[in-house]
Design goal:
By secondary structure, the chain is of the alpha/beta class. It is built from eight helices and ten strands. Helix 4 links the parallel strand 4 and strand 5.
């Protein structure tokens, strides 16, 4: 099946050109003249788009409003989102990236640049989809099902895990918070499976170069956000000590991951530099991120 790309653009001539470029490069495209129409199209589509390319300055619903609507909808908030805009000042570009879009291209754009960005996003989508499919397969074989309330209290089911790779035994859960589990599976098993599946998809030689991954863990009625990192260690088979920082929670969207990634990076810096740190304090930072963002949706 050809990758599906949604183009949101109010310039009819540019819309036609983009559609032509994409379809001539073996992509399937669907178009909308503004964010409001695009949301209606998304609701009616059977196939979720692989990528969204959107202008910013549009009537009825501009690109910023459209992106916020996408980011707050669990069905769509993992779709890579690219701004394609005539707003070219460094301030405009910084603002777009601060919102959390995956990329920002300015008009006029180079066709090769656009196709290269799309190709990279599609490759990443395929890896994440493979990871999600494998996660679903692994956890479904355990015949577990977690039921968590569908209210704002879901943020209380947050688990922070830090797992290190050990050449002799594989993944080893080293730090976690809170200690009370409350899940139908041990945290060791969850951490082990997540790390093992990720290495089977990315490979040990590339896993610490992977960006943070947001995935579904349907049997736990949760989402996971994983970040892999490492520090040099000649005693390890791969020449580095590899580890995974993960958060498990029912409500994690793309906006959350932008802030959580900064927390994870801070944890990772402490680990690399062998500095003292308190896992409970970092858990509270993530809890606040999820709590505040979730409250804003209600």
């Amino acid at each position: 099946m050809k990758p599906l790309i949604l183009i949101v653009e109010d310039n009819v001539d540019l819309l036609y050109s983009l559609n032509l470029v994409l379809e001539s490069n073996n992509y399937k495209s669907i178009t909308a003249k503004n964010g409001k129409i695009a949301l209606k199209i998304l609701l009616e589509l059977e196939q979720v788009p692989d990528i969204i390319i959107s202008d910013i300055m549009m009537p009825e619903m501009d690109g910023y409003e459209f992106f916020r609507a996408i980011s707050n909808e669990p069905r769509w908030n993992r779709i890579p989102f690219i701004f394609l805009s005539a707003r070219t000042t460094p301030k405009d570009i910084r603002f777009g990236k601060l919102l959390g879009v995956d990329d920002y291209l300015t008009k006029p754009f180079d066709e090769k640049d656009l196709l290269a960005i799309i190709s990279g996003k599609i490759a990443r989508i395929n890896r994440v989809n493979a990871l999600n499919n494998k996660i679903e397969e692994v956890f479904s074989t355990m015949k577990i099902k977690m039921k968590i309330p569908s209210t704002i209290d879901q943020v209380e089911f947050i688990r922070l895990l830090i797992t290190f790779w050990d050449d002799k035994v594989g993944p080893k859960l080293k730090y976690y918070y809170p200690e009370e589990n409350g899940l139908p599976l041990s945290l060791d098993d969850i951490a082990n499976q997540l790390f093992t599946v990720a290495t089977s998809i990315y490979g040990h030689d590339k896993i610490t170069k992977a960006e943070g991954v947001l995935l579904n863990i349907e049997n736990l009625n949760s989402r996971g956000y994983l970040l892999f990192d490492s520090y040099p260690d000649d005693d390890e088979r791969f020449g580095e000590k590899q580890y995974m920082i993960a958060i498990i929670a029912p409500l994690i969207n793309y906006f959350h991951t932008l802030k959580i990634k900064k927390v994870f990076t801070d944890i990772s810096d402490k680990i690399k530099n062998k500095l003292n740190w308190n896992i409970e304090e970092y858990w509270k930072k993530i809890y606040d991120i999820l709590l505040i963002e979730t409250m804003q949706l209600y």
